[in-house]
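= Paired protein data =
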Amino acid sequence: MLRTPPNLQIPLDEIQFSFVRSSGPGGQNVNKVNSKAVLRWVIRDTTRLPDGMRHRFLQRYASRITVDGAVVLSSQRFRDQAQNQRDCLEKLRAMLAAVAAVPKPRKKTKPTKTSIRRRVEGKRAHSQKKQSRRGPRGDE
């Protein structure tokens, strides 16, 4: 089970892992060992996420979701498959934690009369400064 902050549990049988060769330096080990972990979780088919959380997840991470509604994460930070697998699960846990809290709706506010007056006075002072730099208007 993958446990996330708001008492959410995702069974590991919903998550598929595959392992491929890592890129980058590493000598012969990189060419022989499939240590890069690729996590695939079909978020649209899961029943474990509340609808609001699923909607926020799909909205926030839309660029990371495939056409068939799957989240694909990969990790190749470590030379070990198991560590990369744990790293993928941590990434997924962090993503779920980020969308767990319902955002507060923004309240519309008006600027205060004092702040409006300050803004207008600042604009007037700036205009006066610019006008004082101009030369006399006359025949050229």
